[in-house]
Write a structure and sequence with these properties.
One of its GO terms (biological process) is phosphorelay signal transduction system. By secondary structure, the chain is an alpha/beta fold. It has 12 helices and 10 strands. The structure holds ligand C2E and magnesium ion (3 copies).
Length: 292
């Protein structure tokens, strides 16, 4: 594996190296090229607040417009970037680009949009995440409360002390901290308690069959209950059906995100969706209604 190649960039080719290895090296080179040539872009998937039925923000999701290939999804290249460490530089680009987009929307009719970015553990350990975020926020002049970070449990598990300190500083700045894919990692609750977490994101694995599998439902309800008891917000990812939506709303999940509302969209389309305020499938429970 390329990870075992020299850190200084030297690689040794042997007759034993197979097609897969060469393809992998090709991909690495193409990814470095992509960063330098502006081939990455962000798509935005709406998050919907279940109390208001309105779009409450977006998750920024990385896409690669690879010449000759079309739009490439993270599953094809994020793991390679994680292994090679390229995710540190691309992750910094993601943060800057998200802040640029927030500023552009804020200055337009779209208005303030809270954008969540996915952050890799390597950005904490190897990069200067706090410095990069502060720089991006001030470079684009955005309100830092419009920025949210999504970290997985495993991201929190490497270098805990340092990560706790960085997250504490970012939270003081007004940034929201969310745990992504919650429930699939190996962290204990005692461990998580030490982090300044604002929001838990229920993994799609528990959402998929939440209305038909009692175990998944129990886990989803436990996460919602725990989040609220600890004064955290809770969001469900991967909501695809009206039944899942109804279940989550009934059990007081705060936000949802998924294909039921929208797939991830190019920035311009997301902006149009916000302006049209088509956060539709909400029940008639707007706070200004005269029921109760
Ligand atoms: P994630 O952060 O858990 O993002 C959610 C993924 O689920 C996205 O896939 C999204 O398109 C997909 N999704 C959304 N709604 C639904 C739904 O209703 N059903 C199903 N089946 N899927 C849904 P995507 O964009 O392919 O991203 C995959 C993963 O790649 C992300 O998972 C995240 O771990 C990683 N990723 C994406 N962008 C970045 C980035 O900028 N930095 C880092 N470090 N990782 C990223
Ligand atoms: Mg995420
Ligand atoms: Mg997720
Ligand atoms: Mg996920």
């Amino acid at each position: 594996r390329a990870k075992e190649a020299g850190r200084d960039g030297y690689r040794f080719f042997t007759a034993g190296m197979n097609v897969q290895v060469l393809a992998r090296l090709d991909l690495e080179l193409a990814l470095r090229h992509a960063l330098e040539h502006g081939e990455f872009l962000l798509y935005f998937q709406p998050k919907v607040n279940l109390r208001t039925g309105r779009i409450s923000g977006a998750e920024a999701l990385l896409r690669w417009n690879r010449p000759g290939y079309g739009l490439v999804f993270p599953v094809e290249f994020v793991p390679v970037m994680e292994e090679t460490g390229l995710i540190v530089r691309v992750g910094a680009w993601v943060i800057d680009e998200a802040c640029r987009q927030i500023a552009q929307w804020s200055a337009s009719d779209v208005g303030d949009v809270r954008v969540a970015v996915n952050v890799s553990s390597r950005q904490f350990v190897e990069g200067d995440l706090e410095g990069e975020i502060r720089a991006a926020v001030s470079r684009h002049g955005i309100d830092p409360t419009l920025l949210e970070l999504e970290l997985t449990e495993s991201a929190l598990m490497s270098n805990a002390e340092h990560t706790i300190a960085v997250l504490g500083n970012l939270k003081q700045l007004g940034i929201t901290i969310a745990i992504d894919d919650f429930g699939t990692g190996y962290s204990s609750l005692a461990y998580l308690k030490r982090f300044p977490i604002d929001k838990l994101k229920i993994d799609i694995a528990f959402v998929r069959d939440v209305t038909v599998n009692p175990d998944d439902a129990a886990i989803a309800l436990a996460i919602i209950g725990m989040a609220h008891s600890l004064h955290m917000q809770v969001i469900a990812e991967g909501v695809e059906t009206p039944a899942q939506l109804a279940y989550l709303r009934r059990h007081r999940c705060d936000e949802v995100q998924g294909f039921h509302f929208s797939r991830p969209l190019p920035a311009a389309e997301f902006g149009e969706m916000v302006m049209a305020n088509v956060a539709q499938p909400s029940e008639p429970e707007a706070p200004d209604s005269h029921r109760q």
